[in-house]
Amino acid sequence: MCGILCIISCSSDIKENILLQRLRNRGPDCTGSLVSKVNNELFVTFYGTVLWTQGPNVTKQPVEDYQGVLLFNGDIYNQNWVKNKCDTNVLLTCLGACASSRNEIINVVKDLKGPFCFIYLDKLTNQIYFARDRIGRGSLLLHKSEKEILISSVLGKDYQCVEIPATYIYVFNVKENIITTFDWDEQVQNDYLIDEWLQNVEIEQNLSDSSRNINKNTENVYFDEQDEVIKYIEHISDTELCKLSILEKLLEHEEILYCVKNITKLLEDSVKVRLETQPERCIDCISINNICCHSAVGILFSGGLDCTILAYLANKYVKEDQSIDLINVAFKKKCDVTFDVPDRLTGKQSYEELKQICNQRKWIFREINVLKEDLVKYQSSRIADLIYPRKTVLDESLGCALWYAAQGQDECNVSACRILLLGSGADELFGGYVRHRNAYKRRGWPGLNGELMLDWDRISFRNLARDNRVICDHGRVPRLPYLDDDFTEYVLKLKPWFKCFPSDKLGTGIGDKLMLRLVAFHLGLKNAVTLPKRALQFGSRIANKKQNGSDLSQILQIN
Hints:
7-stranded antiparallel beta sheet; alpha+beta; Glutamine Phosphoribosylpyrophosphate, subunit 1, domain 1; 6-stranded antiparallel beta sheet; Rossmann fold; 2 domains
């Protein structure tokens, strides 16, 4: 993961400041800069920091050829790409081959698979292309003042800014101050003066999740309630009382088993590519050309269903002589309580199960214990700047929890892993929230389908960019197997009862995320498969349940 910054201004100077340090936190392996002159009064300055994850050697950014200048943050997983080369260089070559054709450049970007953000200057036309990937797994912010325009991975409260929506690819004409937006799937483009575009984005950014009704037609889809699979699942839920017996019986159904095998294969492929595209060395060994036996890979580990599946699959693709860190975070806000929060207890349970099933692997269970005074210290001095421009109580809780988890500092030492696997996206895809159960109760299968699709439509607006900023601050790469392009494409096409079955008979811990529970059971996991969904902010005890998550956080407000 890298830090990228583009400055459009009347000056070519780069002044040392806290912003550059934040970018270097994201990319500690090397730093580079470059200035491109538009005319005597306008310069485009590029600053890039690199965390090496792909290619045989670290590649300094920005990269440049006759046609353009590129800053790239992320990973490309297209199967037809050359695997032994840096994806940044491959992308620059592809963009340069477009010969300044706007449509061809846009089509190159549309074909990319994987999490990424990029900024590309076509030097011949003085147009800047930039975007987050269509799912929105990375962070890219934009700030505009009278003196300059900044596009950056991270900014902070000193810069009034917006998160660039992942719903479009953008082209900025630096001479005319016009932004053109290109839809990912349709041949639709719109032109805006930059101030007009910024105003629209700010309005959209301040919408609550409940008012962001992007996909309004999903509940008009007809579902046959007499579908044979529905009837079979209802029959099993009527005749079996034991949760494990229900899962076992459901796997006897040919169509259900076929779906489970497909999802398992796609998820395993997703984990595989995310673990094979890395130098296989930890932070301490990255500059040493020798074999590393330490933990180069870590997993944010509550012990729940999503992360335990990832840990089991990761065991197949991490070198046998390397340990894997299971990073578990807990907060203590009162002196008379312990760190045995709900996620700590389930984490230890699933850790023991992994040690039994994958007994050739050295698992390191890292207990990240955060005291109130430490939380207060870093909330305002560092974490708030990373969370910004997000500003709710929920952003504060989740952002702080992820920042401390990604820091990886337990009582003994700090995790040296460079790759972090997260279970992000599993709840949205497989119906892990209470609102999915409520939607089913009120409006049946069409209502559930509508809620699932609404979750997917707004996933890029919610927490992915924020999570990227807080995790990358520690020089680690967050990788999200459940948000793989091929995996999500398959899951999104499934009928809702193949994702979850939130009926009253299949209660919490079985009907929610039913398909993932079947996958876990199929893999041989028995403990985590029936654990109920628990939100990170409550499982780690950082949040106060009496607070409304959508309220504005006092800590995140601009002074």
